[in-house]
Amino acid sequence: MDLNLIRTFVEVVDAGSFVRAAERLNVTQSTVSTRIKELEGQLGRELFARNRSGATLTGAGLRFQPHARTLLRSLQEARLDVALPERFRAILTVGAQYSLWDGLLVDWLMRMTGTRPDVALRAEVGQPEGLVRQLYEGSLDIGVMYAPQIRAGLATKHLLTDVLQLVATPDQVARGGAGAGPGSPGYVLVDWGPEFRIAHDRAFNQTEAPALAFGLGALALKYIVEQGGSGYFPQRIAQPSIEAGAMVAVPDVPEFHRPAFAVFRAADEDPVLADALEIMSALAVERLGPVIDP
């Protein structure tokens, strides 16, 4: 299958119309139409419903879309891999949730480049569902995530257990523990996943949603430091702000444990993979102490 056809398909999806896709690809609209028609002929299904406002995916188009993106990503990765200098003996692709890169896996990257200079590294950010899918597709070697939904053929290694603690700016915590927790005007709910939300609601018996919620911890911490308030964060992420005096730990409130795992294909017996996992584990112990069983 011609990758130009697949690339054109993805451009039409992203642009929403054949006209805008043609502008992005720097080709004529008729070229885009011809390519899509040829792709539909090869697949035996119509991929787009054409209308005056643009083009929308049919059911077949919706099902083909993830495969198309996977093919393009695989091609890009292949080009990068082939272009590597001969001094590299292996390539390792690691994906993780953003909060696990922050304050942990970025340090792992630096240690790997220092101790394994003959291993090329690829770093990606994703959510558990997408990371697990990439592991199955073979485009990812290690996925580091909270609460993975493990399927047959995958293995896990418990790396760490993040302790989520309530921290606040000094003016907020001065009001007392109750004044900094859920229900207080400055409290910000950080979404650390469904397990955290369930435990959080159970601990505080909340009936009202907070005025402000974040889906990304780094943004929430920046907001609280600059604007004042409180929220739950992993100790390893909050500690620098605590040491700088910008935040303080709120006493006498619940803490929550959030285990994180390295996930990889069970059949892989690559020594480079084993080294990477060993360095991850050692670094997690250095940063957080002995692993707490989930």
Share in β-strands: 15-25%
Radius of gyration over all CA atoms, rounded: 24 Å
Give the biggest beta sheet.
Answer: 7 strands, mixed
Q: What is the fold named in CATH at topology level of the largest domain?
A: D-Maltodextrin-Binding Protein, domain 2
How do the helices and strands follow one another from N- to C-terminus? HHHEEHEHEHEEHHEHEHEHEEH
CA-CA gap between termini:
46 Å
Q: Classify the helix fraction into a percent range.
A: 40-55%
What is the CATH superfamily classification of the largest domain? Periplasmic binding protein-like II
**Which stretches are poorly predicted, pLDDT < 50 over at least 5 residues?**
none
What's the architecture of the largest domain in CATH terms? 3-Layer(aba) Sandwich
Overall residue-averaged pLDDT value: 86
- Total beta strands: 11
Can you describe what's shown?
- By secondary structure, the protein is α/β, with parallel strands linked by helices.
- The chain has 3 domains: 80 residues, Orthogonal Bundle (Arc Repressor Mutant, subunit A); 94 residues, Periplasmic binding protein-like II (D-Maltodextrin-Binding Protein, domain 2, 3-Layer(aba) Sandwich); 97 residues, Periplasmic binding protein-like II (D-Maltodextrin-Binding Protein, domain 2, 3-Layer(aba) Sandwich).
- Helix content is 49%, strand content 21%.
- It contains 12 helices and 11 strands.
- 28% of the residues are buried.
- The mean pLDDT is 86.
